[in-house]
Amino acid sequence: MLKYVTIVCVLAALCSAAPQQDVQILRFDNDVNVDGYSFAYETSDGTSRQEEGKLDNPQSENAALTVTGQYAFVAPDGKHYTVTFTAGPNGYQPKTSLGQKK
After folding, report:
1. Most buried of the four, 5, 21, 56, 92, by CB within 10 Å?
2. Residue 21 confidence (pLDDT)
3. Rounded CA gap, 100 and 102, in Å?
4. Distance CA 34, CA 37 (A)
5. CA 75/CA 102 separation, integer angstroms
6. 14 sits in which H/E element
7. From which residue to which does the signal peptide run (predicted)?
8. CA-CA distance, 49 to 26, in Å (whole number)?
9. Distance from CA of residue 10 to its chain's centroid?
């Protein structure tokens, strides 16, 4: 459930920050199981996200969720940005690309 709330919040933030336009969902994949989840989407405005979460040490008291993924978008200036990230016991660790016009 938290995953769906996060997706909705991200999409709402992207929609409110950009000028309104007719954006189509080109792809949406979603898989949830006991030990983790994965999802991916891509829209016609150049926005995309893919993420995978895996439960490490599920049977121990040190169980932790490790999430890896990336998201990309086109900024208002036309430059493309990509953020690759890992989140887990060591916190959120993003790596960004420099925006380039295509």
Report:
1. 56
2. 75
3. 6
4. 8
5. 12
6. helix 2-17
7. 1-17
8. 12
9. 8
